[in-house]
Amino acid sequence: MKGGFRLASLSLVQETQQNLWDATNFREPKKVPVGMEFTYWPFSYAGVTYKEVAHDPQLTAEKYLQFLDDIHLDYTWGMASLPNPYKAFQALGSNSFFLANDQTTVAHNQTADVYMEDDEYDEFSKDPYYFINEILLKRKLPKLDQGRKEAAYGALRQSMLEFRHFDLTNELILQGLAERAVYTLVNAPIVFNSPLKLLFDKVRGMKNTLIDLRRRPDKVRAACAQLLAADKAAIPLKPEDLAKMPGLKVGLTGYHVECFLSGKQFDEFFMKPFLEVCEPYMQAGVKFFLKGEGKFLNTIERYRQTPKGSMIIMLEEDDPFEVHKLVGDWCTLATGISASLLKYGTKQQCIDYVKKCYDTFAPGGGFIFMQDRPLLSANDANPENITAVYEFANEYGKK
């Protein structure tokens, strides 16, 4: 690859894997694994806008990964790459995603999203994914539903060209990360999103879903039951398949609607289906990375129902020291610095906080380092703080 990306040695990758394995199994690793979540922020670190480089996938990837010349990462939790092919959506008539005024961040215009109507629950529940893919999709992407097939085909062709360009860019980014030995933590094809989260994110939207829980809870339950059945049937691998795979195996789950639920609702709409689907995989040796959102301290102890060491929990708004008191002996915590402190704190304040996290969480394992929320745009963090924090974290976490 152009741009001087160095080839990762196999031994470095294996060392990172071993450190992650040890940390998530409550053994002290030789080095606490250091990670980061980011989306569009790397462009600002490189001194360019996304718009300036987007025409050239090679240039985009090089600028996107330039910050790694100064900051060492052991891992990212997921496939760290550009998340939204907004031009592909726009080619099909959707205004849900757009390039923000900074010419770098792709923003989500939730007011432009199109959702299922109140009275369509029964039709949805007959075959949820048919409704999503054949009915709702055409509402969200109106150029697919034109009377003239030639026009619809032309829009689809333009969209696919945009997506191909976007996909090539991400392939180059992922190649560059691999060449730098940045390990992808979530590596097993087991993803659990609660059925209610799908309604919340894609089908009914935030406001409507929360209203539905009060006004038509039985309709919501019926829809969730059908979604869960379909999702279980679509899982590509059985627990016994993954049990045969050696090494660290990590699936994915995450919160959106969950942080708005009462404890009783959380148990019904997240914890019960999560355990039903995922516990057999945990028994087969799969760990699950929970991408937390909002505050969920009131439900965190539910994870003591899972096998010890099977959860890796990324915190957002909750105090990690309080979380550690409740589940620090049972779940691995992915935490260590807040994005707000990276933005507003002094360099010494940031380092002092990281040191406190290491001194508290690292002994005995069960701790991997990362910040509490993704770096999205230019002003999300002070670059001097980030370089200082990651230099300190990488050194202080060594035995």
How would you explain this protein's 3D organization?
The protein is of the alpha/beta class and 399 residues long. It has a domain at 10-36 and 71-80 and 182-190 and 235-396: Alpha-Beta Barrel (TIM Barrel). 49% of the residues lie in helices and 9% in strands. Helix 9 (195-203) crosses helix 10 (205-215), helix 10 packs across helix 11 and helix 16 (347-361) packs parallel to helix 17 (383-396). The protein is globular. Mean pLDDT is 95; it is low at 1-5.
TL;DR of this structure?
The protein is of the alpha/beta class. It has helices at 10-24, 41-45, 50-53, 57-64, 86-91, 121-126, 128-140, 149-179, 195-203, 205-215, 217-234, 239-243, 263-283, 320-327, 339-344, 347-361, 383-396, and strands spanning 75-76, 97-99, 106-108, 183-184, 191-192, 250-254, 287-291, 311-314, 332-337, 367-371.
